[in-house]
Design a protein that fits this description.
single chain; 476 residues; alpha/beta; UDP-n-acetylglucosamine1-carboxyvinyl-transferase, Chain; 2 domains; 4-stranded mixed beta sheet; 12 helices; binds shikimate-3-phosphate; binds phosphoenolpyruvate; aromatic amino acid biosynthesis; EC 2.5.1.19
């Protein structure tokens, strides 16, 4: 590993032990190698982009395999509030979206969803009146300024509780039914979602949009590429040939019938579990090509000691990750895939050598300050994890059980679960926070440990492995 950066100023005291809350979840310890297949629901990022595009489309469209979780349901509720009809099909993952004239004089609850708070203000600018946005207390500290300043620069009135252009929730976007569009500069170094939100609505601006990123760094580029790809899939012309500049032509958004890929970032902790416990974890439906940053998961896990294989399955490719229980430290720039940092940090705390995670200063504006949260909670378990200017340095130490605080952050909860596979006595506070993107996470985690598939026992009463071409619990 290269020389670690000097640590960011740390609190002098060790984190105090916290008493277990009644809702704390005793993370199960793995008692042997895993052999499980985990069916992961639809991608949050794709579901919420496809919902927005369906709402802006020229006619009714359908999403299949859509995520149903707090973030997705907040998006659905917000679109309904704006006058878009979203109806469930035969199963909850099928959503029929019928656009309508966008209504003003309404209020939108963003919860803690970055995709809702950053993607919908440009849509609200197309509504026929003021749209008020507010969210969870923690949402009120997430950065919003650049997207609101961009709307202001494009001629949209945006007001907050104080003077000037607001930089945080709550705020009001004063829709007039039209946005002239044109050129705008945006500093997206705090979140790629500022770019994605503006691009998603831009084809409906009269002159389209030319957006230039002005900041020194740009996180989550795959998520911007996902935005561009989903726009092109609905017939919108996007020129991204110049680095840091995106040009969206004005024009209709086509209605589509689309299938949502599984959420590869949510697959990450399950696949990482194979490194911690040893054995094999498989995720069916692994896309052959994708713009999801979770595409980096196999390579990252290989660098940390796993072997990976893509196997053909009845419902498409199955990614299989196999570990021995030995984990290697890693020095990695996670700028492109900050969502994976909590999983990598948990693995790093269990590794046999130090790790350095770089390029993720923007995680300080996620669901919580994720760098501080990870450093505090890994330290609470007896580990050593220090913040740097743009990441974390993790030095493995023997860990012990404690309450693992989650700060309303779903990915803190999944990190705690991963650590708990090896460290007895970890109690994950508020595991229900995983409902942000993965409701039922704790039951899925237990099923993975039981080696079951979709709740079915892995072994029949005769003790033989359940029938599938891939061994116990496998199959799409
Ligand atoms: O556009 C998206 O769907 C997302 C972009 C990323 O945001 P940041 O660029 O703010 O990290 C990512 O972390 C988030 O979970 C989802
Ligand atoms: C940062 C995340 O979410 P959000 O979409 O709320 O930004 C995340 O899911 O890791």
């Amino acid at each position: 590993m290269s020389a670690p950066e000097p640590p960011h100023p740390q609190p002098a005291a060790q984190p105090a032990p916290v008493p277990a809350r009644e809702d704390a979840w005793a993370a199960p310890v793995a008692i042997g190698p895993l052999d499980a297949t985990v069916q992961v629901p639809g991608s949050k990022s794709l579901t919420n982009r496809l919902l927005v595009l369906a709402a802006l489309a020229a006619g009714p469209g359908t999403l299949r395999g859509a995520l149903r979780s707090r973030d997705a349901d907040l998006m659905i509720a917000a679109l309904r509030t704006l006058g878009v009809a979203v109806a469930e099909g035969g199963d909850p993952g099928t959503l029929h979206v019928t656009p309508g004239p966008l209504r003003g004089d309404v209020a939108i609850d963003t919860g803690l969803a970055g995709t809702v708070m950053r993607f919908l203000p440009p849509v609200a600018a197309l509504a026929g009146g003021p749209v008020r946005f507010d969210g969870d207390p923690q949402a009120r500290v997430r950065p919003m300024g650049p997207v609101l300043a961009a709307l202001h620069a494009l001629g949209v009135k945006v007001t907050g509780d104080g003077p000037g252009i607001p930089t945080h929730l709550p705020f009001i976007v004063h829709g007039t039914g039209r946005v002239a569009g044109g050129s705008v500069d945006v500093d997206a170094s705090a979140s790629s979602q500022f770019v994605s939100g503006l691009l998603l609505a831009a084809a409906r601006f009269e002159r389209g949009l030319t957006l230039r990123h002005t900041g020194s760094t740009l996180p989550s580029l795959p998520h911007i590429e996902m935005t561009v790809a989903t726009l092109r899939d609905v017939g919108v012309h996007v020129d991204d040939s110049r680095s840091g500049i995106w040009q969206v032509a004005p024009g209709p958004v086509a209605a589509r019938d689309v299938r949502v890929e599984p959420d590869l970032s949510n697959a990450a902790p399950f696949l990482a579990a194979a490194l911690v416990a040893g054995g094999t974890v498989r995720v069916p439906g692994w896309p052959a090509s994708t713009t999801q940053p979770g595409a980096l998961v196999p390579g990252l896990l290989e660098r940390m000691g796993a072997t990976t294989a893509v196997e053909p399955g009845p419902g498409g490719d199955v990614l299989a990750v196999t570990g021995t229980g030995e984990i290697r430290g890693i020095d990695v720039d996670l700028r492109a895939a900050g969502e994976l940092a909590p999983t990598v940090a948990a693995l790093a705390a269990l590794a046999d050598s130090p790790s350095r995670l770089r390029g993720i200063a923007h995680l300080r504006g996620h669901e919580t300050d994720r760098l501080a949260a990870l450093a505090t909670e890994i330290t609470r378990l007896g580990g050593q994890c220090e913040e740097t200017r743009d990441g974390l340095v993790v030095t493995p130490r023997p860990l012990h059980g404690a309450v693992f605080r989650t700060y309303a952050d779903h990915r803190m909860a999944t990190s705690g679960a991963l650590l708990g596979l090896r460290v007895p006595g970890i109690e994950v506070e508020d595991v229900a926070t995983t409902a942000k993107t993965l409701p039922g996470f704790d039951a899925m985690w237990q099923r993975m440990l039981d080696g079951t598939r979709d709740g079915a026992p892995a072994h029949g009463s005769d003790g033989r492995a359940g029938g599938s071409p891939h061994g116990r619990g496998a199959g799409a």
